[in-house]
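Troubleshooting: if your tokenizer reports a length mismatch, compare your output against this known-good record of 287 residues.
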Amino acid sequence: MIDWIEALEKVGIDVPLGTDEFSVICPFHDDKVASCAINVDKGVWICFAGCGQGSLKTFLRKHLNYNDIQLTEVLTPKPSYSIDIFDEPENTSNDGINDVLIPEFVEGIFPKWIYDRGFTSNVLKSWGCGTNKWNDLIIPIHNMKNELIGWVSRRQQAIPKYMYSYKFQKSKTLFGANKIKDNHFICVTEGALDTMWLSQHGINSVAILGATMSETQTNLLRSLKVEEIIFCFDNDVAGQRATDKAISLLAGSALTSFISLPTEYKDVQEIKNEALLTEVIANRSFF
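Known-good structure output:
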């Protein structure tokens, strides 16, 4: 039997906890509301805007533009490389990445394309990154106690671009929270690379690893010892929606603000000019 929750999360669709049916932004048309309903128990979907309906196999095939062989690979369970928190690990030395080794993963070696995007070896090393034989950038993920809990693979051209370790729960994690020290403010981004880019420019940042901030992530943000939370989400409809929701979740419990990206930039990572990046954050708006 196919685990539809696992299959959907593999392709970047964050399934809400504790529910079999939920709605998402339809990937098949320019959606401004969550008009596509998905039922993971029955394995079906329907777009109320008229894009279609059917089994989740047809949804994934259409969404990814995959053939049957490629689709089978997505739907076939992969072995887990993440830590089972309910079992005592055989290796108790807390060596970190050795507990969740990825085949062919080499730490400290990076694909050329990530340099082309402006990242330096120093910042990639500071995040414990590496690469594999497919030329992906492998990024370890730690919890707030600095314990390794998984990894994300950023692929250069493949779809989806981001692949997470088996059963990793993005909604329960703030990427980069283990690196945050007491500070005046912290920036919150959607993606891991966005947060790493800000850190390269000396800016405290964490990522929610998606476009929807969960209640758990909200509570994790509240626990950080910072005076202000600045939302730096993507410059699109989903990013605006994520900003509105995140600010509402933190209303009354933290000083919140948000940046406005120049129209030509999709996200903070596209701003290569450090002076402009600093200016964008300095000119943030308060809610």
